[in-house]
Amino acid sequence: MDAPMVKVKVEEINDEIDVESQEREHFTRILNSFRSYRTFCQRRVTDTLRYYEGLPTHHKQLIPNFLQHLTHVQWCICENYDVLKLIIQDVEHIFENKQNAANAGEDEPTSKATLPKISDMDKLKSTLRQFVRDWSTDGQAERDVCYTPVIEEIIITSLAVTLHKCKEINNYTLYPWVHQWTNNLRNEDQVRAITFPDVDTSDLPENASFSMAAGNFLEVYEDPVFFIDTAHNIIAYVEKIFEILKPGGYWVNMGPLLYHYADMPNEVSIELAYEDVRSVIEKMGFVFEMEKKNIASTYTENPASMLTHTYNSVMFVCRKPVMKEEGQ
């Protein structure tokens, strides 16, 4: 009589093992994108060099500094790689809710199953640009537009984020624009350095608490700045935020609706216009306390580039009503 129940439990255990295996494989692939960074980026330089070598001699004579520039680009890539290796050095315990066999000593990935995808490498290059946005003086203007309005709306006395390996201000250097081969006004713009962090991350208030957890937002919660459009199903995000927020609590959001999975191969998602997102938020039970539209904002933008993208973002503050208990 108990056999069917036992079978169901075995299937549930197998499903959990499969999910854990997939998560570990994904995590390893991301680590391998860090390890593959130098080889991947140097391949782009090699392609350019090969094409340069095929140019007519009189064309080469017109750009006498180009080879020197490529050498500088290669050097910048190696400098970035040194920082990336430092990031994954102690990666086994980087998240409080996961423990991973990182094989951090490997210089290059060895398993085909966990080789990084092109999209993984693109995300890694975006990560380098996010150091500019969040942790350097070069990103101050973006932070002022995107973060300051949110911080001003949040009723919190202090919020601090620490990077455990940063012991002093501006003690690391990155070259985040070295991958940008187009729309450079000068060669120097491609190899321009930034330093980080621009604040002392060890100078925390006594009551400060910060941790990182790996996983989907629906399982592990994050702050919603340029964030809610990372969902396959944005309605599920709104539902989860309403669920975890205490009655009387506030949700502050700012950003566009880029929808990360839109038009991505092998991915499906639902992309709602803001008017529909707003309707969903209200129907979920939130009350709009403040709303601003057409806020010009950028995301990891290169200020020296000849091409820039500006979002007309929306910012809003919503409140979860205080529900009266039965009998009151």
From TrEMBL:
<comment type="similarity">
    <text>Belongs to the carnosine N-methyltransferase family.</text>
</comment>
<keyword id="KW-0808">Transferase</keyword>
<dbReference type="InterPro" id="IPR029063">
    <property type="entry name" value="SAM-dependent_MTases_sf"/>
</dbReference>
<dbReference type="Pfam" id="PF07942">
    <property type="entry name" value="CARME"/>
</dbReference>
<keyword id="KW-0489">Methyltransferase</keyword>
<keyword id="KW-0949">S-adenosyl-L-methionine</keyword>
<dbReference type="InterPro" id="IPR012901">
    <property type="entry name" value="CARME"/>
</dbReference>
<protein>
    <recommendedName>
        <fullName>carnosine N-methyltransferase</fullName>
        <ecNumber>2.1.1.22</ecNumber>
    </recommendedName>
</protein>
